[in-house]
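User: Design a sequence. Structure:
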């Protein structure tokens, strides 16, 4: 007769036989991390909400078709304007109410989720890929390459984000593509700095020396032997960069130098409607979705970090 016991500290499992002798269940680090993450209720609830928001974004056209309210369609019939010619609040026909020119706030919020998630995910993927490659090159190759990349990282991290991002967006005419490029430019350096530090700590280990002695090229060593050992840290950092990118896009759009109307994003929805202080619904609902989405990504990122490092010896501090 055997019994499985989960260790509360790490989430690892041990098997005890009838004599009380224990043996650890053989599982890889990725399996263990996934098992720990599944037991984190906050992280799982956050993941569920993120999936929900992603489905809302993907099926925004379906929502528009079901409600018969187009993304930019103007309404001026009953239930749209009040007796004082003010936009109507939430009701049975417009669940989130309408904005000052008669557009359905719920449909536009759903379409705004598409833009915000697209910018957050694409910018994070590009920044993570670029930062990982440059960080590995700096940490592994050293000498001149390390000096150049390290100084470049310092320069990017020293630039004031908002001022420079606004300047770039104005200079190259604000658009979705420009916003993604700007966010990528300002995000890769933090990834590269973390990866560089990790690579510096492992490049002299025995298995790296063994690969060198067998004649493996630097490129092969970096991507076959080094990359798997920094991948967990990269995934954790990427999960925390997504909400930062979403908030940055909303900030630029709110300031008028991000995604431009009539294309809706949560940032410009809040900016366009915030002047109507009496019609609270036109900026509260996009704001709530922005808040909950960034909170969910941050909580999931914390859960991923704890899953990879259950004992608390973390590369990253708590957000």
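Assistant: Done.
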């Amino acid at each position: 007769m055997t019994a499985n016991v989960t260790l509360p500290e790490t989430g690892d499992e041990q098997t005890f036989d009838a004599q009380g002798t224990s043996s650890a269940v053989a599982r890889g680090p990725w399996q263990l991390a996934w098992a720990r993450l599944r037991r984190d209720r906050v992280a799982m609830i956050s993941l569920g909400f993120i999936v929900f928001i992603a489905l809302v974004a993907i099926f925004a056209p379906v929502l528009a078709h079901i409600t018969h309210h187009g993304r930019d369609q103007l309404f001026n019939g009953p239930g749209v304007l009040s007796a004082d010619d003010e936009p109507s609040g939430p009701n049975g026909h417009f669940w989130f109410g309408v904005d000052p020119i008669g557009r359905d706030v719920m449909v536009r919020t759903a379409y705004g989720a598409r833009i915000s998630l697209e910018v957050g995910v694409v910018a994070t993927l590009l920044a993570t890929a670029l930062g990982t490659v440059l960080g590995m090159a700096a940490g592994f190759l050293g000498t001149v390459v390390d000096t150049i990349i390290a100084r470049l990282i310092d320069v990017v991290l020293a630039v004031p984000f908002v001022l420079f991002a606004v300047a770039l967006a104005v200079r190259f005419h604000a658009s979705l593509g420009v916003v993604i490029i700007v966010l990528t430019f300002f995000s890769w350096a933090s990834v590269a700095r973390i990866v560089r530090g990790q690579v510096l700590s492992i490049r002299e280990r025995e298995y790296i020396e063994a690969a060198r002695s067998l004649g493996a090229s630097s490129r092969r060593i970096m991507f076959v032997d080094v990359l798997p050992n920094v991948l967990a840290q990269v995934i954790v950092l990427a999960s925390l960069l997504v909400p930062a990118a979403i908030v940055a896009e909303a900030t630029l759009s709110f300031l008028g130098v991000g995604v431009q109307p009539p294309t809706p994003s949560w940032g410009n929805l809040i900016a366009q409607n915030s002047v109507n202080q009496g019609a609270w619904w036109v900026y509260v609902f996009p704001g709530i979705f922005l808040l909950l989405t960034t909170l969910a990504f941050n909580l999931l990122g914390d859960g991923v970090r704890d899953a990879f490092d259950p004992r608390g010896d973390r590369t990253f501090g708590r957000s």
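The chain is about 65% helix and 5% strand. The two ends are 45 Å apart (CA to CA).
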